[in-house]
Amino acid sequence: MPTRRHVLEVLAAAAPLAACGPPSGPDPVAAWRNPGAGETDPRRWALAHAILAPNPHNRQPWLVDLPGRDEIVLHVDRTRLLPATDPPNRQIVLGCGAFLEVLAIAAAQRGLRADVTPWPQGEPQPVLDDRPVAHVRLAADASVRPDPLFAQILRRHTNRQPFDLKRPPAEAELAAITAAASAPLTAGSVTDAARRARLIAVGGEGFRIEGATTATHMESVRLMRIGREEIARHRDGIALEGPMIDGLAALGLMSHKTLADPKSFASRSGEDMWLKMLAATPAFVWLRGPDNGRATQLAAGRAYARMQLTATAQGLSLHPWSMTLQEFPEMAGPYRETQALLDASPAAPLQMLVRAGRAKPAGPAPRRGLAEHIRA
Ligand SMILES: Cc1cc2nc3c(=O)[nH]c(=O)nc-3n(C[C@H](O)[C@H](O)[C@H](O)COP(=O)(O)O)c2cc1C
């Protein structure tokens, strides 16, 4: 096993070489440039924005039908679920809610009101089935005003960095973020040292449990895209890129095989990095609803999109830390403790737990492009 120092020295030499050369495959972030340009159907224009919504593990499971002239029917691509980390498909539904909210914000920009009917054929339980998630009708409405959050859609990115502990978010900034969640959802923030320390400790335990549980760990490892070629080929999942990653990959130290081994250099360095990032959390924000029904989960996803866009408008970054909200059996202890810490319960659980703070802006995550989401 090479020492970390030795690896870093070799990388310093190898990384610039590994990082150069022409990009291969489709541009993974093309969807972020001028979305919907040239589209004449306003539904497609709004959808080109909706696919930029936050969603768990960047699975982008959204499939749409476009019947008639003004309707959109949203389905979930069930080959893109996360059965190990998200057994009830709750987080996937939140990602659908975020998609619907960005869709509605984009529609308003064109003077269109999005009338959303959630679960038009009933709520699937205990897991999703083939029934649609939502029916949307875009209606011309002279009273619809552009939403100021539209300007944040292209600037919003999940930011996985240590946040600046010396410049924590101000109470007024956190209040604006939590106010973006409207009734019946409730949102709040945690800044006091004692509860913050507890959330960091339990969040770290959750991270370790997810990594030590083969099914959940391997689900994430399979979705890691290592280096530019894999990222361009899949344009989804967890993108690992940059000179450091390219250098480690070139040395054989970063691969799906090394990541699968919790004792490898890549896994241990990854754990170090994530736990340091978690420790550098000046504030958490959380979101919960009155129950855990599918309609509440969808509304929570819509609220989370608004919260993150509001944070972006204020120059703040958000980063969900979802491990301890996950419903697989090995996580039961940290799940219970996290719910109790924030006065939630399994019947009306937390839907999101999110790091909040300031950091260098993050770049865009890959997207597969609108064509991949429209059913023939
Ligand atoms: C319900 C939900 C749960 C999420 N949980 C996590 C998480 O635990 N860790 C993380 O790093 N990102 C998490 N994210 C963020 C997604 O990974 C991110 O939205 C996705 O990779 C796309 O990147 P973007 O938000 O920068 O466009 C979550 C997002 C949603 C909607």
Task: Describe, in short, the structure shown.
With 376 residues, this protein is of the alpha+beta class. It is 40% helix and 14% strand.
How would you describe this structure to a colleague?
With 376 residues, the chain is an alpha+beta fold. The chain has helices at residues 4-19, 42-50, 90-109, 171-179, 193-212, 214-222, 227-234, 243-250, 256-260, 265-279, 294-313, 332-341, and strands at 62-65, 71-76, 112-118, 134-140, 186-190, 224-226, 238-240, 283-288, 317-320, 350-357. It has a domain at 30-154 and 365-373: NADH Oxidase. It contains twelve helices and ten strands. The strands form three sheets. Strands 1-2-4-3 form a four-stranded antiparallel β-sheet, with helices on one face. Strands 5-8-10-9 form a four-stranded antiparallel β-sheet. Helix 7 links the parallel strand 6 (224-226) and strand 7 (238-240). Residues 7-21 have low confidence and may be disordered. It binds flavin mononucleotide. Flavin mononucleotide (FMN) binds next to helix 3 and strand 9. Flavin mononucleotide binds at residues 54-58, 91, 94-95, 98, 157-158, 160, 319-322, 365.
Keywords:
single chain; 376 residues; alpha+beta; NADH Oxidase; 4-stranded antiparallel sheet; 14% strand; binds flavin mononucleotide
List the helices and strands and how they pair.
Layout: H1 4-19, H2 42-50, E1 62-65, E2 71-76, H3 90-109, E3 112-118, E4 134-140, H4 171-179, E5 186-190, H5 193-212, H6 214-222, E6 224-226, H7 227-234, E7 238-240, H8 243-250, H9 256-260, H10 265-279, E8 283-288, H11 294-313, E9 317-320, H12 332-341, E10 350-357
Parallel strand pairs: 6-7
Antiparallel strand pairs: 1-2, 2-4, 3-4, 5-8, 8-10, 9-10
This protein binds flavin mononucleotide.
